[in-house]
């Protein structure tokens, strides 16, 4: 007895000017399975999904839904066919309420009027199913990216679909939330829904998926049962050469810690009522300070205050021993601080500008309007970083918005490295970055650090924080609960500290 | 060959230029002498010169508007600013013909350079006010500039005391009617402003910053650009272009009419920007495109007048043509037509 796939994609080709994103890509989804779509940044995963959901039209190829050829022209079309999607970049309406976002386009009606009561009730229910208890009448943009991501997921889950597609839904979630999402997915699986799942976290791939399809450079490499494809094999299939994850990790973990005697930046009692309890931090040059904590523990708030985005109401900041006031990003940049924000779409990239312009933007802002970098220098600089960070693009003049998610992230990192900062704040820097590139970036961070850069590192992946950090400041409920030595710490000790104050 | 052609069509100047050429051809059809240029008293005369000359104020304002729109803004008060600046310069110069020692001389109320500086300063003030509301108070640009649009003509009325102020001071007319080396003075003014702007936007980081702020203000701020200051000064600059335009207009008609000077100019300016290929959603901007846009509008106006379209319906005719022009320039429609053409005509 051979089950029939609910969805088949065959020989899909798609080119963009200068890029062949997909060459004869293939995909089969069976009812009641979780299928992981794996591949490096720019391998074509999102493009395949966009083709499937009518966002992009394929140059050639065929899509069969239950043996019927389909050709969705829009997300709406796909939705009507029973294909529900959470895209890589949250594409909700930031100005609408959470409830409206969940039900937009399919508002329940009572007579001629929209049934707002039902919307709010059902939105709450949809979110509670993911264990999220928030006020659904509040505007979406008031919530952090992780919640927005959960809202997008709740929206997709709450539609009647036969195929559910999740493009990196977990990139800004922490472990608890991922677990909740997985519970929900298992439930859907039991109902016979086919789920396509993209992630760069191998642990998650193995935790939830039944089968794996690997894409490389837009080509179909293979389809494997998850149980039969080892972790290392999977990585090598994706990358196309041998990579030793453990070896790389060990290498980056063995960086020398060279504490300087005086901190580069010293923060005393920095806080703002309602947002952050006063916090003390010392960040040394040549050291990585990790911020540990769960979602909403105040990691991003701390970073934003340090970068002058949100004003602190109390406390002092001293840089190299001299007190400074950081009340705008501009001032922070002038002091040699750099900040890679967690929400790259709204706070990071300038989508229509070229990769070159995006890379030199912060440096140029620091130089001011009149000391314009000659185009020649800009190009040289951009090309250099494209090479160094392995940004996948035909050339530096492409709009950054056309890069794959992970490559955008690399370009943002380049933007800040180009300013030769003294301190680099990284808020989820490896969000959406593939495993090979992740190791490269962590290496790069370490190298920069050894050259004397002070780094504040935030990640919801605790193992990552542990791997790079020399010291870890642990936050809980917008408050610092302690600091531990990164070398001595393991996940247990950090989580004990996070939980500790509760017990 | 096909490659260079497709490169050409993808250039942002291609469609505005095509539109302008089409309009000129239409003019030639109705008036074969359209392109004729004569030299009279060492001055160039002809329809084309006339169009260029008359388009000058619009070109100036549209350039300022381009920058405003590039930052995601809009300034609908430029017409009112023209009225105010025009009123100031006319009231200050005034002028009369007196006979002094047996010779006729023109005297002005205040020295002309001072009056011009004062008018520009008042225009700048208008822009600072707009900038303050938009960048400082964070108001929606259309609402913020609506205030001055409505109040501005009242202010101008106060200055002119409700009258049409006529200027009797010959030297002032040079700005709007004079020629240098046979070419209208107003075109030199446009050229100078254009040169300054091109220099600033291409040879400094100003262009990059404006586009960046227009595309993503938050990311720009997080990169260390002082987005607010930038937006503030862009509004100020836009108003100054309106001030300069006011000088040309006032000088050209030798009077200032608080009610009608620069009426609906803001709409023409916005249209010129859009025709030139700059998206009203902000971001990438094209100054040369804007100039072509302004010329399209002026050529159209000229055609309508020279065809003798009855004044009652000339707005309708203009609207229809503008609609057509926008259709030609719509990428979505072009794609649709292309697809259709390829499908029916096979591979071309
Ligand atoms: N609209 C577009 N225009 C031009 N090129 C594009 C466009 N969208 C995607 N590409 C290119 O297609 C390739 C595949 O991109 P895609 O987004 O599918 O990668 P991905 O596998 O999802 O990567 P990631 O893991 O980084 O999200 C990339 O090289 C990208 O630059
Ligand atoms: Mg992707």
User: Into which percentage range does the β-strand content of chain A fall?
Assistant: 15-25%
CATH fold name of the domain at 7-239 in chain A? Rossmann fold
State the CATH architecture of the domain at 7-239 in chain A.
Answer: 3-Layer(aba) Sandwich
Q: Which ligands accompany this protein?
A: adenosine-5'-triphosphate, magnesium ion
What's the helical proportion of residues of chain A?
A: 25-40%
Mean pLDDT of chain B: 88
Number of DSSP strand runs of chain A: 22
Mean pLDDT of chain A: 86
| Oligomerization category of the chains in this entry | heterodimer
Count the DSSP helices of chain A: 18
Q: What is the number of helices of chain B?
A: 15
Q: Span from first to last CA of chain A?
A: 54 Å
Show unreliable segments of chain A.
247-257
Q: What's the helical proportion of residues of chain B?
A: over 70%
> Stretches of chain B where pLDDT falls below 50 for ≥5 residues?
none
What Rg of chain A, in angstroms, do the CA atoms define? 23 Å
What's the N-to-C terminus distance of chain B? 13 Å
Top-tier CATH class of the domain at 7-239 in chain A? Alpha Beta
- Report the structural category of chain B: mainly alpha
The pair of chains with the biggest contact is: A-B, 32 and 21 residues
Give the count of structural domains of chain B: 1
